[in-house]
Write a structure and sequence with these properties.
The protein has 397 residues and is of the alpha+beta class. It has three domains: 57 residues, no CATH class; 151 residues, Phage tail protein beta-alpha-beta fold (3-Layer(bab) Sandwich), CATH 3.55.50.30; 177 residues, Jelly Rolls. The chain is built from nine helices and 24 strands. The protein has an 18-stranded mixed β-sheet that branches. A four-stranded antiparallel β-sheet has the order 21-1-24-23, covered by helices on one side. Strands 20-22 form a two-stranded antiparallel ribbon. Strand 5 and strand 6 form a beta hairpin. Helix 2 runs parallel beside helix 6, helix 5 packs antiparallel against helix 6 and helix 6 packs parallel to helix 9.
Amino acid sequence: MIDKNAEATHLQYLKDEKFIEWMLTPTDELITYWQHFIEEHPEERGHLLKAKELFNQFDLSSYTLPEEKKQKAVERLEKSLRDYRQRRKVRRLLILGTSSAAAILLLFLFLFDRFRTAELPADASKDFYVGNELESKDILLYTGDQTTTFEENIDVTIKNDQVLQVKKEKSTDADEIEIDRNAINRLVVPYGKRSKVILSDGTQIWLNAGSTLIFPSTFGNKTREIKLRGEMFAEVAHDKERPFLVETEHFSVNVYGTRFNLSAYEESNPWVVLVEGSVGIKTEGNREMKLKPNEKAIRYEDGSLERSQVDVSSLVSWKDGYLTYMETPIYEVLRQIERYYNLSFNLDDHVSLQGVTCSGKIILSDNLDNVLTALTLISDTRYQRENKSIYIYRSET
């Protein structure tokens, strides 16, 4: 249950057993309980409404599954719940968590979709992906000659061009770091961590795992420029006198509007998706491609740009704590999970999971077992953990 003595977020409610039960089966008792909860904790009303809004976005009616597949999924769910109860009794290290049974049940209900696997070659030599948990690394903040490390996720806010206010994820207090107003700062967010930055002009940037952001303490009078490697979601403050520019290794983004997502990881083709406003992507040849809302531009290795219509919600949902997939190859899903949880999977192109796809949604819980359980439900696979190694198998028929 949500700790009433601590500030809760909407994501905590999505993992709370009583909240899930209320959303699925709103009895008079549960309705009364949550009415009293809001009366006693009015500061939680916004978080609770956000959680309800996200929950209602999970369109349960659109997911269909053959009866045979449904029965197999039920059996896997029941086994997960049995394992959960047993692990609670013996208090093993890899216990799923106090609200895991409800979280798995929620995932079972809204993650059903078409499980699709391609025909495999007869000589497939492997039948699993192998992953390893990596050593945790700290977030690094470089400000002039000073380097500060943080074990937790952090929110960084520039105050008065001379102070960086840093709030740790699990703390209610904020630290302050003095900075040179003419300095260039660098924030390095390793795999397994996330951060948010509010720049001197009020622009908000969410940094995904494995990202580096270079930004000034204050912007000049003509332009606002930052540099990125990795992935970010940005809400850019309006200032028609000072254009906003994001530089990456392969292209630059001129921002004419407000909300967009930019992915520029080294191991994949960089892309931009526009949620609201307008942006222009400029390549080495100085050719600019402008995007409209719900459009995505991707740059290929030959330098060409391709524009397409997309469902932007599935590409930016990581910012709100969940991932959405529609017939996505499992290796792409595992790469996202790698970055988010600081794992390393052996993604062999010839492995027998090559044709497995994922359709559904995964809540990015703090507990990796919850996430891997959700993955098995949306991909018709199973997993096993041995020490720091993780094995992803095709489900038995």
